[in-house]
Write a structure and sequence with these properties.
This protein is an all-alpha fold. It has helices spanning 9-21, 23-41, 46-67, 75-88, 90-117, 123-129, 133-167, 171-184, 186-203, 210-230. It has one domain (9-230).
Length: 237
């Protein structure tokens, strides 16, 4: 393994190898999360709120499970621990809920910005339909900036959760660490964003099965990529 955090490639390969080494557990974990998320999104408005609170719980639970040197026996017990293991640790659960609440506010802010600047879910199709270069270029830049903000928020949240779950940092200390990751390893995070988060963003413009498929293929590998890279850019470095 390359011990430099500059390139995302080695960490992405190790994350997929780690997922493949315990494929049944991670596959069921991902499937359950995607199924619950799909059902939640069918509930108008409140479904998005539920998903924003569910996601950090699952990610923190997955990080805790990945951290165990020897997985516990019993697939069903391990699956229950993905969420229940976080909830039983009251300090961890409180920190995760604080991050989820802040994340909810950030996503509401981004959604309002998207509506104000016309970069909502219909903007990609409108961009390709434009015949004038000037408006198309302006809309394209706005859309790209909005995607960059989404990627930055997603990855910052993931590293905050990693610092809270793996090192026991408080939310503010974890935020300081996550901001430091962007300073120390911007190419690493850019690579993770391009490989994992951007496909999810692009898939969200589709109303068919594509978002579910992309989420199934990227959520757990992204979480594991954060985990395997964390030791090299953790708070101790």
């Amino acid at each position: 393994m390359n011990d430099s955090p500059v390139s995302a490639g080695p960490w992405i390969r190790e994350a997929y190898a780690l997922a493949a080494s315990d494929l049944l557990f991670w596959g069921i974990t991902s499937t359950c999360y995607v199924a619950l998320g799909t059902l939640a999104l069918r509930i108008p408005f409140i479904g998005h709120v539920l998903l924003i609170f569910l996601t950090p719980l699952v990610i923190a639970g997955a990080l805790k499970e990945a951290q165990k040197p020897q997985p516990e026996q019993g697939l069903m017990r391990r699956l229950r621990h993905v969420v229940s293991g976080v909830l039983r640790d009251h300090n961890l659960a409180l920190s995760v809920m604080i991050i989820a609440t802040v994340d909810l506010g950030a996503w509401v802010f981004l959604t309002v910005l998207a509506l104000l600047f016309g970069v909502d879910s219909s903007s990609l199709a409108q961009l390709f339909a434009m015949k004038s270069l000037g408006p198309a270029l302006f809309s394209g830049v706005l859309l790209l900036l909005f995607w960059c903000l989404q990627i930055a928020l997603s990855l910052t949240t993931l590293y905050i959760l990693a610092a809270i779950t793996l090192s026991g940092l408080k939310p503010l200390d974890a935020l300081e660490y996550a901001v430091g990751v962007w300073r120390k390893a911007p190419l690493l995070l850019t690579g993770f964003g391009a490989a994992f988060v951007l496909p999810l963003i692009l898939a969200s413009y589709s109303y068919a099965w594509l978002p579910v498929l992309i989420a199934q293929l990227t959520l757990i590998p992204l979480t594991l990529a954060i985990y395997v890279s964390y030791d090299f850019i953790g708070p101790h470095t």
